[in-house]
Every structure is written in structure tokens, then in C-alpha cells.
Write a structure and sequence with these properties.
Helix content is about 65%, strand content about 5%. The chain is mainly alpha-helical. A two-stranded antiparallel sheet has the order 1-2. Strands 3-4 form a two-stranded antiparallel sheet. Helix 4 packs parallel to helix 11.
């Protein structure tokens, strides 16, 4: 109670020990627990506080072997740990959102078809012998790729923030991610690295694959030196948007899983988008390296 003068000094001491940002001074309620602090109060903070308290209960049980600790707050292992066959229990709490964004973005960036699209464009551009043309047009492709993906993930984020109160959404998203993982695993087993690279024999191509082939053909004509530099840039930007929109269906599981996990962090709106930018940076990192 900061209405009492003796508690003001105590609060200042906590501010210092917990390295609270100065702009957050004076905002109440503020809760200090473990090595963290929480400002304000909502359902998300309530769940975090319950988990922290439960952690202390479990630590008590492990250190003192006190059976009375066991029934204080049940369920921490279910909320903070997942059990994977062969690997056992894995702690999923405490992962910094920056690390989460970097790992998901880096893994998502290794999309065979997206990389093939860039490589196909660069192959045409290299033939012009114009280094500036290669960097500007190729850079436009990479930039627009990241921009389209940023808008896509931001849309997922806002959707999940809106429906976060519906618990069944986590189960539905989980099944969708598993489905996409199974599809990709099947393609790996039958050795389909990129549908665009493989010329089908007596088989029908999907609508998305046909669209990709048309876009690739257009990029081939636009990348040639005979096309005006200022015409090529906006056309390549539109083609990059088209390619990446199609590619969203190839790797839908990654951004869905990432944004759903990101919504579980108690962040301000700006922080969410900053971490999505971290995701995008690592997503286009391999494309940027190929361009260079």
C-alpha cells in the first residue's frame, strides 16, 4: 500500500532490485515474484502469477520432500512442460520472445520453393552483367518477400489476440500444424524438394503450382536487360508478392504456431510487432545471403 510513507521506500528498493523501467515507476498494481515483475492485472497476468507460485510450491516439494506442497496448486508440469516420446519432458517456459522469433524465422526461411524463386530471378539477372540491376531488383524481391510475410503474420497475430479467450483454438491450431508437418514429411519421404523444380510425368499439377510457373515465366522476361529498369522494379515487386502469397500455403504451420505462442507473452502492442520484425529478419536472412 503506497499510501503509507514507509512502503514508498520499500517500493523504490524493489524498483532498483528488479531493474524496473523509470517510465513504469508509480504504475499500480505491480507484483514482484521470483525474478520477475508484473504491471497491471488481467487474465494473462493471473495465469503467470499462478504458474510462478506453483513453481515455488514444486521447488519446496523437491528441496524438502514435503508431501503437503504437492496439493497446493496442481498442474504446473502440464502448463510449463510438454512430454515428447523418446525425448521426455521439455520445459517450454522462460524462452525469451527474441529467441523464439529468431528460431522460428530462421527455420521458416528454409523454404525450398521461395529460395528457388529468388535463385531463378537472379539467374536471369546475372545474365545481364549489370551488378546494380542485380542488387536493386533482387533486393526488391527480398524486401517485398519480407513485407508480405510481415503483413501475413501480423494478421495471424491480431486474429489470435481477438480469439485468445477461446481455449479450443489452441487445439485446432495444434491439429493444423500437425497436418502441415505430416504433409511436408510425406513430401520429404517421396523426395519432393520443390514442386516447381520437378517436371511432372502424366500427373496433374495443382492450381498453386501452375500459378507459380506462370510467375516464374514472367520473372524471366522482366529480368532481362531489355526491360526498363523502372518498369522492372514494380513488376518484380508484384511478382514477389504473388510468389510469397502462394508460398504462405506451403509453410502455414510455422507462422501459425509462432503467432499463437507469441500471444501467450504479456507484451505491449508495439513489442509484438518488433518481435515479428525479428522473425522476418531471420526469415529473409538466407535470401539476402544468396543475393549477396
Amino acid at each position: 500500500n503506497i499510501a503509507e510513507s514507509k512502503n514508498v521506500d520499500k517500493l523504490k528498493e524493489y524498483y532498483k532490485n528488479y531493474k524496473v523501467l523509470e517510465q513504469e515507476y508509480g504504475i499500480v498494481p505491480i507484483t514482484f515474484i521470483g525474478s520477475e515483475y508484473f504491471i497491471g492485472f488481467d487474465n494473462s497476468i493471473k495465469e503467470n502469477l499462478e504458474l510462478k507460485i506453483t513453481n515455488f510450491v514444486n521447488e519446496c516439494k523437491q528441496k524438502t520432500f514435503d508431501p503437503s506442497c504437492e496439493n497446493k496448486l496442481d498442474g504446473v508440469s502440464k502448463k510449463e512442460r510438454i512430454v515428447i516420446p523418446l525425448l521426455g519432458a521439455i520445459n517450454v517456459s522462460g524462452v525469451h520472445p527474441f529467441l523464439l522469433s529468431a528460431i522460428f524465422g530462421f527455420l521458416d526461411g528454409f523454404n525450398a520453393c521461395a529460395l528457388m524463386a529468388l535463385a531463378f530471378l537472379l539467374a536471369v539477372l546475372v545474365g545481364t552483367g549489370d551488378r546494380k540491376r542485380i542488387l536493386v531488383i533482387g533486393g526488391t524481391f527480398v524486401f517485398v518477400s519480407g513485407l508480405v510475410y510481415f503483413m501475413f503474420i501480423s494478421a495471424w497475430l491480431n486474429l489470435f489476440m481477438f480469439i485468445s479467450y477461446i481455449k479450443v483454438t489452441s487445439i485446432i491450431i495444434g491439429f493444423i500444424v500437425i497436418f502441415f508437418g505430416a504433409v511436408l514429411m510425406r513430401e520429404y519421404i517421396v523426395k519432393i524438394v520443390c514442386k516447381i523444380c520437378n517436371t511432372p510425368e502424366n500427373t496433374k499439377e495443382s492450381f498453386l503450382t501452375k500459378m507459380q510457373r506462370k510467375i516464374f515465366a514472367k520473372m524471366s522476361s522482366v529480368g532481362k536487360s531489355s526491360v526498363s529498369f523502372w518498369v522492372a522494379i514494380p513488376v518484380v515487386a508484384m511478382l514477389a508478392a504473388g510468389v510469397n502469397t502462394i508460398e504462405l500455403f506451403c509453410s502455414l504451420g510455422f507462422p501459425m504456431a509462432y503467432t499463437k505462442i507469441l500471444t501467450t507473452y504479456n507484451l505491449n502492442p508495439l513489442a509484438y510487432y518488433l518481435y515479428i520484425l525479428v522473425y522476418i529478419f531471420f526469415y529473409v536472412l538466407d535470401q539476402f545471403v544468396i543475393l549477396l
